[in-house]
Amino acid sequence: MSYLVEENAAKHRFEILVDDALAGFTAYLPRGEVLVFTHTEVDDRFQGQGVGAALIKGTLDQVRARGDRVVPRCPFMAAFIERHPDYADLVVDAA
Question: How far apart (Å, rounded) are the C-alpha atoms in residues 2 and 19?
Fold first, then answer.
């Protein structure tokens, strides 16, 4: 399986493609250099295969690379960051 995480800025979300098929997304509200993540969804066909974790990791890596920060209101993203504290520096409190 090949994964590709890309931002779809028009839809305010990062999407994950698995073997060129849309497998899931994590939606955000843009607030300048802060992205407020509100919801993550993985298609049923890809559940239990690590797709959600790959999506969040790829998203956070891209956010870090461009110098942005996150507010993880989405419980899935918040739990991922809690399990992977190396991403905790990206988190800011909601204003």
Answer: 5
Query: In this structure, are residues 40 and 62 in contact, taking their beta carbons and an 8 Å threshold?
Result: no
pTM (two decimals): 0.95
| Adjacency order of strands within the sheet including 13-18 | 3-8, 13-18, 21-31, 34-42, 69-72
Q: How far apart are CA 7 and CA 43, in angstroms?
A: 17
8-45 burial, b if ≥16 CB within 10 A, otherwise e?
A: eeeeebbbbebeeeebbbbbbeeeeebbbbbebebeee
Model confidence pLDDT, tens digit, residues 31-71: 989 999 999 999 999 999 999 999 999 999 999 999 999 99
Task: Give the other-Cβ count within 10 Å of 2's Cβ.
Answer: 7
Angstrom distance (rounded) from CA 51 to CA 21: 12
Beta-carbon count within 10 A of 69 CB: 16
